[in-house]
């Protein structure tokens, strides 16, 4: 089941650099693990912004929330979720 | 080159039914042709709305505009375009 | 799986009264059938508005979209969907 | 009498961790007490956000305000209230 | 129990004049009846707009909705409701 | 002459508690003095928010601004003013 | 007493041309009468829009509303009013 | 003197086709005349929308308004104007 | 050439009081100098807000920007500029 | 390929002055290098704001993002990108 997820990251200018560097590295590792598992199906950078549009493929709203709220940078993110359904003109199933 | 495209369709209640039925059929055919060519890479229905989120893979802003403005339902659409770039954590190229 | 759904109805002043009366009756019947089936779990009127907040309990985004887009008044509605997850402080499962 | 309540929590990054952990524990206990009393009828997590949608069942606007402003995390919340009425198509009373 | 109600009226330019004149007269009569009963406690014109801010004093959300949706001009109104509570600095009860 | 005034208070989490407690006490005293004088005609809490809707009865825009900008909590407030006029259907003068 | 007034005019494409031409002529005459009387103190076109910013100098909110709602084009206008007070750095009284 | 101008065109579905075709042709001719004169310095299509961003180089706000309000499609446009100044890092004068 | 300028001032609660007092005094002096020169033609307080609406009369967008960005409180301001043109119904030139 | 880019800069009042002065100097140098290379085709100051509208001429969304995210002041910017296409009435190619 697919969801479009919009994540905007806002790290305060006075945040501890060592901490945020570590979080970013953990975020990247976690994100790539989920991509390899097929749960984080797409990950695109929004041109010109510290933001991404992603597509998640999960079993349920609960699984989606569990994954998103586990992101290391989650406390610095503003997240918006759009549930996606099969489009009748799509040539492939979701 | 990828773009996230948000299309919202608004057909007036008093529109000519035969006309809009024809346009919808043409829209579907055109959309599927572009999907088969790989230019309209993803097409998802927004759950609960007469709207879709799509990802286009085209050569340029000009090609994108040419395709979108050729859509049979374009006069009834509100379209928003977000240019996408390669995300450094993505495991696959765009 | 639960979704909060916000439906705002806007019937044009010049709409055919007989048609919209029939649609409203069909909407009520369909809505009550879904409530009896447990799929439309809650239905509340927003005080002072021709709008409701509802909670749907369905298997998937696709089932949700199928139900919503089948509503007789769907062409006159503006619909917004918020996917809900289990809250860690809730004393009952969703 | 029912109200839909939307609570968004924003705890500053530099907040005292011990304090906010204590407030969160108190919030959970208070929330569960109100749920057991039937005043906080529903509590759902918004998927992907530190936010919830809740339904309160109270005697009056005053009781609602008293409860909400007593929440331990209230100073960190942005709260929005929508008064709900009986929907004519609902199969059960509110 | 008090509610602040914001009503904005929008009558289409091509509406039937005889009909809307009748509705306006009925609206005035109904509004004055409710004011005399003490249910429509205040009624103020927003300077420069076909809109009012009102304060209703009713038993419940349901009574409020019943009154508002009975207004003759209701189909032409955009209505917004804010539930009011006792302010701790107010020198008089609500 | 009446004005609807919407005041939203936002006191930063790290504000000096002694200072803000003193300001709140002064605010209450000043507010009650103005209510007794008839200038602050109504004061209602917005349910669920650190905000109020008030009605002021003053001689002029200048008097209104002088009063509002003298509020002890004014530096922490976001204030919005709506000038009110006599409504033709009101049964009492403003 | 001064008010900044923002007027945006929207005449439907299918409006009766003879009628709107007459209303525009009446609007101009009425506006110039009020300017000569000193009540409509300033009238400026917003560059690129069928809109103006104006400053009215009137006795009260009521007089302002009476004037604005008497404008021949009022039914086609969206009007916003900002009450103005004396600025402490202004070198002239309002 | 430069201005960024955003024009969004909205032609109603039931507009007279012959009329709008004529207006579009006149719009194109007028636009190209102004471009050749150097007053309409840039004209870009917003990808995916019936809209453009333009840069005008004119003597004054008045000249800008005269030009924009003379556009044949002006009655169907929503126009927004941003006055531009010389940027201190620009390598060329405006 | 006239511009309507909206200035909203937001001085952080923890700003250095001596510094901001000095800036406010300088702002007042600079503002009055520009008013005497005729460049800052009008200056009005928005009732209930730390904000003003002003009208500037300058030669160009560049002069306007130079003046505004020279304001001592400019770093604490949110500024919005609306270019004004001669209104055809105005009885006096701009 | 052209993009309209809107950059708004917000430097916190308590930022380290030496650091931000250095960043501003680097920003200017980098910006002028890109202008000389033809990639940053236009750079205009928004009158009255610490903001600019720019036009970039680059090969792709990726190149655009690489350039923008390399700006020394990027962490202090809010950036918005609008992809531009050839306008059919433009007398010159993009």
Automatic annotation (TrEMBL), chains A, B, C, D, E, F, G, H, I, J:
This enzyme's EC code(s): 5.3.3.4
Keywords, ordered alphabetically: Aromatic hydrocarbons catabolism, Isomerase
InterPro entries with a match to the protein in the record: Dimeric_a/b-barrel, MLI_dom, Muconolactone_d_Isoase
GO molecular function terms listed in the Swiss-Prot or TrEMBL record: muconolactone delta-isomerase activity
Boundaries of every Muconolactone isomerase domain copy: 1-89
Pathway: Aromatic compound metabolism; beta-ketoadipate pathway; 5-oxo-4,5-dihydro-2-furylacetate from catechol: step 3/3
Catalytic reactions on record: (S)-muconolactone = (4,5-dihydro-5-oxofuran-2-yl)-acetate
Class in the EC hierarchy, top level: isomerase
Domain of life: Bacteria
Gene3D superfamilies to which the protein is assigned, alphabetical: Dimeric alpha+beta barrel
GO biological process: beta-ketoadipate pathway
NCBIfam families: muco_delta
Subunit organization: Homodecamer.
Family (UniProt): Belongs to the muconolactone Delta-isomerase family.
Name the UniProt record assigns to this protein: Muconolactone Delta-isomerase
Origin species: Paraburkholderia fynbosensis
Gene expressing this chain: catC_2
């Amino acid at each position: 089941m697919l969801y479009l997820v919009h994540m905007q990251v806002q790290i305060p200018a006075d945040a501890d650099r060592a901490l945020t560097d570590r979080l970013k590295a953990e975020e990247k590792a976690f994100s790539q693990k989920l991509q390899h598992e097929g749960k984080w199906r797409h990950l695109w950078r929004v041109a010109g912004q510290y933001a991404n549009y992603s597509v998640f493929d999960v079993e349920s709203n609960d699984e989606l929330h569990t994954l998103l709220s586990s992101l290391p940078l989650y406390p610095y993110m503003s997240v918006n979720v759009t549930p996606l359904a099969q489009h009748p003109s799509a040539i492939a199933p979701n």
